[in-house]
Amino acid sequence: KVRMWTDRTGAFKVEAQFLSCANGKIRLFKTNGVKIDVPTQKMCIEDLKYIEQETG
């Protein structure tokens, strides 16, 4: 499921699919085909709650 991901400052936004969360990083698959790893502490609270729901 593709959704908009935002950092805590609101400056960084990316449309991507959630792949996994491990070692304090979130792996996202961007719509342009690139995989990126983002530190969890940089993500906004709403995105962290979404990950919690997805991963249990």
Automatic annotation (TrEMBL):
<dbReference type="InterPro" id="IPR007131">
    <property type="entry name" value="SHD1"/>
</dbReference>
<feature type="domain" description="SLA1 homology">
    <location>
        <begin position="1"/>
        <end position="56"/>
    </location>
</feature>
<protein>
    <recommendedName>
        <fullName>SLA1 homology domain-containing protein</fullName>
    </recommendedName>
</protein>
<dbReference type="GO" id="GO:0030674">
    <property type="term" value="F:protein-macromolecule adaptor activity"/>
</dbReference>
<dbReference type="Pfam" id="PF03983">
    <property type="entry name" value="SHD1"/>
</dbReference>
<dbReference type="GO" id="GO:0008092">
    <property type="term" value="F:cytoskeletal protein binding"/>
</dbReference>
<dbReference type="GO" id="GO:0043130">
    <property type="term" value="F:ubiquitin binding"/>
</dbReference>
<dbReference type="GO" id="GO:0042802">
    <property type="term" value="F:identical protein binding"/>
</dbReference>
